Amino acid sequence: MKKLISILIVISLVLTSYSMAFADSGTDGTNAPMGDPPTTYGWDVTKTLNGDAYGSWTYRDSVKLPMTLTYNYEGDVNTTVSGSFSAPLSQIETTLGFSVSYQYSWSKSIGSGTYPASLNGKTIRIKSRSIYHSYAVTQQQWSKTLGVKTLIGSPTTTTVKKPYATDWSYDIM
Description:
About 15% of the residues lie in helices and about 50% in strands. The chain is an alpha+beta fold.
């Protein structure tokens, strides 16, 4: 009986060794565990400069020319985002090259001599608007298994406008 148990153990070990010799191997030639291969996920993020975009006019003071006072204006303009981000914000900002919370500060003094003498005697309304660099930010999610990259879903595009200047003008009343 002991001899029979010994033979069964030897046969079991031989069969186990034989089956392991034919197990799936990893890409580096080592034995890989059975089951699904590891999958990583990520995002491709690109930007395209669409050109300049302009904000709405903000009307300031109405002034009869020639001016006798100096008018001082200042303000802050924030970056605007039309849409939402699915990719990590850090990756979006790295691609853009600036923070989406970027703020542009400006100041302007308008006084005597700002407008041509041909407007003397007329009343003007001072106005300003922000100027932005407009970017299209495209995000595409992907997965990668065994070195094969597969796109997930459709790409989404979000518009980001970064302020960089203020445009000044006037209307004759």
